[in-house]
Amino acid sequence: MLNSQINQTHSLSNLLPLHKPFMAGDATTHSSSSAYTLAILRQPTATQKSNATHTRSTSVGKIKAISIPFLTKTTVKGVITIQPTISSAIAGVGIGGVADGVSDLLGRSFLLELVSNDLDSKGKQKTVKAYARYEALDFDINIYTYKCDFDVPEDFGEIGAILVENEYSKKMFFKKIVLNNNITFTCESWVASKDDNPEKRIFFTDKSYLPSETPEGLKSLREKDMESLRGNGQGERKSSDRIYDYDVYDDLGAPDLSLSLARPVLGGNDHPYPRRCRTGRPMSTKDPLSETRTLLPFYVPSDEDFSEIKEVNFGARALYSVLHAVVPTLDAIITDKDKGFPLFRTIDMLYDQGVNVPPPDNGLKTVLPRLVKGAVDTADAVIQFETPETIDRDTFSWFRDEEFCRQMLAGLNPYSIQLVTEWPLMSKLDPQVYGPQESAITKEIVEQEIKGFMTLEQALAEKKLFMLDYNDLLLPYVNKTRELNGTTLYGSRTLMFLTPTGTLRPLAIELTRPPSDDKPQWKHVYTPAWDATGAWLWKMAKAQVLSHDSAYHQLVSHWLRTHCVMEPYIIATNRHLSQMHPIRRLLLPHFRYTMQINALARLALINAGGIIESTFSPGKYSMQICSDAYDQLWRFDHESLPADLISRGMAVEDTNSPHGVKLTIEDYPYANDGLLLWDAIKQWATSYVNHYYPKANLVESDVELTQWWDEIRTVGHGDKKDEPWWPQLKTQEDLIGIVSTIMWVGSGHHSAVNFGQYDFAGYFPNRPTIARTKMPNEDPTEEEWQSFIKRPEDALLQCFPSQIQATTVMSVLDVLSSHSPDEEYIGGYIEPAWAAEPAIKAAFEEFRGSLEKLEGIIDSRNVDPKLHNRSGAGLVPYQLLKPFSGPGVTGRGVPNSISI
What we know:
Structural class: alpha+beta
Main location: plastid
Radius of gyration: 31 Å
Low-confidence stretches: 1-70, 89-96
Number of strands: 22
Subcellular location: Plastid, Chloroplast
Protein name: Lipoxygenase
Oligomer: single chain
Organism: Lactuca virosa
Largest sheet: 8 strands, antiparallel
Shape: globular
Domain PLAT: 87-205
Strand content: 5-15%
């Protein structure tokens, strides 16, 4: 074994002559240069020899030494830090078994090659090679250290890059490489074994360069590195790959398992949609348009897969455990899948006593300590849910009209409420198919509800009427959804009035069923009532609307507008912006873990028969509705917070206002806090962009940036490539707007719709995800009506999710609402490349200071008695946009990225 290792070493080209035969125990460091590649023993730095001419023997110990000229060299020492994987149980220095142990013994762990910024006199790269040798394991921080020495000629020039070859049999996660001449390569990347990928990995220093400023010695490496990430669009991707390419969503269905699980392809003319990362799996035998699925997590480029190095209770791992352990366990013990909760007390028992289940393995209990409790008096375990804060503070908050409306401004989905600007309310759908377009909410109904305040005309003129409008989006799916078992659907509108105290009061709910073959259109308006029957019908109408809002929140406000649309930005960034590009370094923290979470969603959340389809009202049509929303509603130029508010009539442009916009509802907690965060993000982006692009022509002439933005529009969001609203990218202001929007979507937008999920929906009567039964007054039989009259509470409970649906959603929301212990919060961590540039470091510190002030402002707002939408008896303070948080389900904290 040793001989084969030695002979392999000597087979390398340009081997320096040795002064004595190789002895395993004597190999402490290795060094070389482009003219002096591998030397098994380090020679004195002042007496290194040129290889102008040399000879070598093919056998150890018989290499002939010759006389060669002297060159002056400097020894540059390097330290490499490696993060071990969670699954590796490493003893001593052996990382991959016997073969890797021998590699360490011989000092052949990693072959490193420094690259100069300058070319030599012949126009070729100047490089210096050295092998790294294992040094130590720091048990306190769980980091491995390797060291190496480079003998660098004095005329080598500035070091700009390093090439890495992994001699181990397994991929290794490189944290960073630091040289003792104050040069750092921040890697944070997997390096595949050379057995899996013979191409050397390229890392650049922390200094950023625009393409036009790239040093001559690095230009070819800059392009080569990006080419390696683009791939050729062929073949099935392997876990060791780092390929970023595009594909449509053709892997949500599973027709090979059952034709009932076939689903349309999302992406293309029929169902416009953003693109996902290509995996290249074989196509289905039963549906050639669908890609086959796997039981394992879907491929993501290796640098996006942090499952082996993150904390063991990282959200993705916890979510995977819920989907593959908790949910099947609940499914097994709840034998009647259609059984609802017989009493509200039964719902309360989920939090008071929990559900007895067979004892899970220790790993699950470690990952899910909030859910899985040990049972003292039985051999079983208990899945017990924490009481959500909304219910802990006010048990009956879910029942009240004022809370129903308040949560549209300070709840889980503050993205749907819009100003009413035209009357009457009208549908845009074909009346020949869907029935009359005019809403049944009449002027008379409105004025009856706001009698004593003002007329309808005054309310419109003074911007007092607001609504949730899910009529046109849902109506095309009502009849199809009703053919499914255990669910129903309506088109809906919910009208509200802004009171003098700044709070909203519900006026009316309209539910519509379109015509079908045997029935005419059915349309009914419900209002808050003062009789028992009317009051219960009103409560049930609210439950229907909340199921619509829950579906829209999860499918559109959350999945589509954050997770889904970000994936093309991530793919394009890796394909077209070099490691050393400043805009890549600005955006990268906002992409952390997103692709891995998205792949997990395709595996078990948004897939055919997955969590969304089985627990939300639209069922198998959920993702088609999501596609319709993308087609009809999504615009990049409306994704910044100010533009979004203006598009919904919730704000108008006003240069005299602090944020450049004036809110239509002054006490709008999401918008109030969000605008402060948006301003901080945009100011940080402005300082950053203007530093690297002091002149406008630098933006337009940046070839990488131009290709990046072009590919986002024409490929990643190719179904909308011809839309006129796409921003141009010609000036600094254009670039600031684009990157600020991307940063906001990955941080503030996602946090506002994600981390409050358990607090607001963990008690499902507050936000039911599904309405399983139609309204009692929609074409009832005599028996159905009398049953409702006799026990209206039973009708409401039967409309709510079943026991398996409720507990499944609660389990998933518990994980989705959790912050990881190693979360990176916005403004909390300065990237090494930012710290390396004094002007950028100063701008970041200013950004961080703005966010620290934001924390205090939010705290003061939450105790201001004049702000009735965030301060009052039993109200949960609005904290979703507080920048920082501790781990766990806290209902606050803004991570840099969509990391769960």
